[in-house]
Design goal:
about 210 residues, alpha+beta, Alpha-D-Glucose-1,6-Bisphosphate, Chain A, domain 4, 9-stranded antiparallel β-sheet, 6 helices, about 35% helix
């Protein structure tokens, strides 16, 4: 019995550290994407539970979509309160739900990720001036616009969460940041879904 409990805790610990690593990438606070040839045709793919569309025409944008087994109210709370973010995205968070307010997640030994609240419609959408990673200083300083939208099912038991990221400019650094976030942001939405399929993360217990 004791051995079984030890193994269970070890699995939870390993999963927690994996989530920390994924969260850091999802908010683009660690690492650097390798150079690649950028396609110029719109592309749609499935990354785990997340549908990902990279659009180059008529406007360059990232569009992501995932179904979450939770009500719109529950998803809204997970996005728009510090306590909510701490249940799935990181052990420390700061949220001030007003235009110009903070929407930030902090990781031990890493830069702050997230951005600044631009506007929101209660229960339906939140728009953030999003920071890129330190590796992309110009993009981090000038920001992109990330719009999270929540749409409930007819019975109110599940929600579709969409992320649309626009504001991309031209240049090598902007192109690399675009490709980086095309890989990182699907992980962010997958983690949100995981929070409602497996329960909130107990960061203190996981990091002991």
């Amino acid at each position: 019995m004791v051995n079984r409990e030890v193994r269970r805790l070890a699995r939870r610990r390993d999963r927690a550290w994996k989530w920390i690593s994924v969260a850091a990438m999802a908010l683009a606070v660690l690492g650097m994407v390798s150079g690649s040839t950028l396609a110029q045709e719109n592309q749609t793919s499935q990354v785990g539970p997340v549908k990902v569309t990279k659009e180059y025409k008529p406007e360059k944008s990232l569009k992501l979509e995932v179904e979450v087994p939770a009500s719109p109210d529950a998803v809204w709370a997970a996005f728009t309160t510090a306590q909510g973010l701490q249940t799935w995205l990181g052990p420390e968070a700061e949220v001030d739900m007003k235009p110009g307010g903070a929407w930030l997640v902090k990781f031990p030994g890493a830069s702050t990720g997230g951005g600044t609240v631009m506007e929101f419609v209660p229960g339906k959408s939140i728009t953030i001036a999003a920071m890129a990673p330190d590796a992309f200083p110009t993009v981090r300083r000038e920001r992109t616009k990330a719009v999270f939208e929540i749409e409930g099912s007819a019975d109110g038991k599940t929600s579709i969460v969409r992320l649309t990221q626009t504001g991309w400019k031209t240049g090598e650094e902007w192109d690399k940041a675009f490709e980086y976030l095309a890989k990182g942001n699907p992980m962010l939405l997958a983690m949100l879904r995981q929070r409602f399929t497996s329960g909130p993360m107990d960061w203190a217990a996981m990091m002991k």
